[in-house]
Amino acid sequence: MIGTLMYLIASRPDITFAVCMCARYQEKPIKKHLHAIKRIFKYIRETVNRGLWYLKDSSIALTAYSYANHAGCQDTRRSTSGCMQLLGDRLVSWSLKRQKSVAISNMEAEYIAMSGCCA
What we know:
Blueprint: H1 2-8, H2 16-24, H3 31-46, E1 62-69, E2 80-87, E3 90-98, H4 106-118
Antiparallel strand pairs: 1-2, 2-3
């Protein structure tokens, strides 16, 4: 089931974080992980018409956004970083992952997220 969801996140970035959280516990899943996967499938069934749509005519301006959640991971207390790059209206890259180090403030977490986005 996780493999199917991993394939689907290429066109559905709204489920990326939830799928990756479930994939961490793929080796030894428990009942709550199976329940989370079922909730993801239910969400997909209810939002089947959503996804990434690329328009043929759009501008070519590169825009980047970043996001940081200070101490967002309940297991390790590490921050979660997210970023996306748009070329005109089109999404060309996105990322959502735990930071490698523990940030001591929200500002530090945001700085790490932005430097990762610019890299």
